[in-house]
Design goal:
Length: 133
């Protein structure tokens, strides 16, 4: 059996540093406006003088939905969500639980989003961080 090709989806949205996934955005050096997803030009003042910045590694679950009837290539059920990471509300997949709660603390991670016979698609995901009591 041939090895599957690994494809990193949306590499402009995140990177992995020291084994930890982190979301990336842009900050305009002229007006200070921050953008996610990253842009080539400031969407406020239209400057091209921008720099990358890292979003917080942890966020808060804002809303979610369980997908039961998964499209081709995905295995259901799974959870999709919006989560607040700093000033940004970001869409993603929750892994490690099928019963998240609004307000749960989430951490960015990287994992398999879907796969088929030839390819594995990897991307950023969110996992619930269990609070220490």
């Amino acid at each position: 059996m041939a090895e599957k090709t690994v494809i990193k989806t949306a590499p402009f949205l995140y990177r992995v540093e020291n084994g930890n996934a982190v979301l990336t955005g842009n900050r305009c050096k002229v007006c200070g406006y921050e953008m996610f997803p990253a842009q080539e030009q400031c969407t406020k003042c239209f400057s091209h003088d921008i720099e990358e910045f890292l979003l917080p590694r942890t966020g808060v679950l804002y809303s979610f939905s369980r997908v039961v009837a998964a499209p081709a290539g995905f295995v259901g059920p799974y959870v999709l969500c919006y989560a607040d990471f700093g000033d940004f509300r970001i869409f993603g997949m929750v892994v490690g639980t099928d019963d998240p709660k609004i307000g749960d603390k989430l951490e960015v991670t990287e994992g398999v989003l879907r796969e088929n016979d030839e390819e594995i698609y990897r991307g950023y995901q969110f996992k619930v961080v269990k609070e220490e009591k």
